[in-house]
């Protein structure tokens, strides 16, 4: 799921992919307890989704 998210970016400093969503420590804790069943920060990173929908 994260691989498709627009917030999943490569961080050159850490040399790995990280979640770049704007969340605080409490939000992150709640997300970890939920077990990634449904991420409230997920944003589809497919730039062409809107275009395909319009066709």
Structural class: alpha+beta
Number of strands: 2
Summed up, the domain count is: 1
- What is the helix tally? 2
SSE string, helices as H and strands as E: EEHH
Q: How is the main sheet built?
A: 2 strands, antiparallel
Task: Measure the end-to-end span.
Answer: 25 Å
Strand arrangement across the biggest beta sheet: 1-2
Mean pLDDT: 82
Gyration radius, to the nearest Å? 13 Å
Oligomer: single chain
Q: Globular, elongated, flat, extended or rod-shaped: what is the shape?
A: globular
Q: Which stretches are poorly predicted, pLDDT < 50 over at least 5 residues?
A: none
Fraction in helix: 25-40%
The proportion of residues in beta strands is 5-15%
If you had to describe this structure to a student in words, what would you say it looks like?
Helices cover 29% and strands 15% of the residues. It has helices at 25-34, 49-54, and strands at 8-11, 16-19. It is built from 2 helices and 2 strands, in the order E-E-H-H. The protein has a two-stranded antiparallel sheet. It has one domain (2-54). It has 55 residues and is of the alpha+beta class. 0% of the residues are buried.
Topology readout:
Blueprint: E1 8-11, E2 16-19, H1 25-34, H2 49-54
Antiparallel strand pairs: 1-2
